[in-house]
Amino acid sequence: MGKELPILPASAQPAQAAPPEKVLYSRVFCQKESCPPLRLLIEFLKSRGQLPITPSEMEEASLDEWAWVHVTLGYDRARKPIQVFCFRDHGTYREAFEQEKTQFLEVLKCYDDFEASLVSESIQRARFILMTRFDQDDITEDGYDFNGWILEFYQEHCNGIVEVDGQGFYSPKGELIVDLSLTAETE
């Protein structure tokens, strides 16, 4: 005779998987040869009235490291931190660096205006890409401001050009110069 199987009530069904995070990426394509140590970014953020929260396990000496690749920076203890990555033209994330450059250069081929050609030149000359990543469903206006200050630091100090997914590329004055919002809608 066959083995009896227990009868489970409908409430015992497996839980639904949590919906995936809706993340937003922003980048600064930087032409400076090397990425500054995190201590300079932290000091810049503080000078702008921000209070960055670094990981508790982070050692003080690592703030002076030039070859950092990833850090999480918080702006509010009740919110998820912003993830900050540094992709260089050499080392650990070289492949990601090349993929990012290639992807955006390909997108910019569709544009035939002066601004897009300037952006393409900036991307081609980039030595590293600073990328931020955060959960759109968890971030507040303060978080957007915090992320903006991170981008501004690298734009100003590393001769960079800012890109925000779903929006486009921004001039140093904060003006949208290459609108990629239509490209994002078709993907």
Model description:
By secondary structure, the chain is α+β, with helices and mostly antiparallel strands. It is 32% helix and 21% strand. The protein is built from 5 helices and 7 strands. It has helices at residues 38-47, 94-108, 114-125, 141-157, 181-186, and strands at residues 23-30, 70-73, 82-88, 128-135, 160-164, 168-170, 176-179. It has a 7-stranded antiparallel beta sheet with strand order 2-3-4-1-5-6-7, sandwiched between helices. Helix 2 (94-108) packs antiparallel against helix 3. The protein is globular, with a radius of gyration of 21 Å.
Core attributes:
7 strands; alpha+beta; seven-stranded antiparallel beta sheet
Short recap of the structure:
The protein has helices at 38-47, 94-108, 114-125, 141-157, 181-186, and strands spanning 23-30, 70-73, 82-88, 128-135, 160-164, 168-170, 176-179. By secondary structure, the protein is an alpha+beta fold.
N-end to C-end Cα span? 56 Å
Low-pLDDT residue intervals, each spanning 5 or more residues: none
Largest sheet: 7 strands, antiparallel
Structural class estimated from helices and strands = alpha+beta
> What are the secondary-structure elements, in order, as H or E?
EHEEHHEHEEEH
Strand order of the largest sheet: 2-3-4-1-5-6-7
Percentage of residues in strands:
15-25%
Proportion of helical residues: 25-40%
Based on CA atoms alone, the radius of gyration comes out at 21 Å
Number of strands: 7
Query: What is the global morphology?
Result: globular
Secondary-structure topology with pairs:
Elements: E1 23-30, H1 38-47, E2 70-73, E3 82-88, H2 94-108, H3 114-125, E4 128-135, H4 141-157, E5 160-164, E6 168-170, E7 176-179, H5 181-186
Antiparallel strand pairs: 1-4, 1-5, 2-3, 3-4, 5-6, 6-7
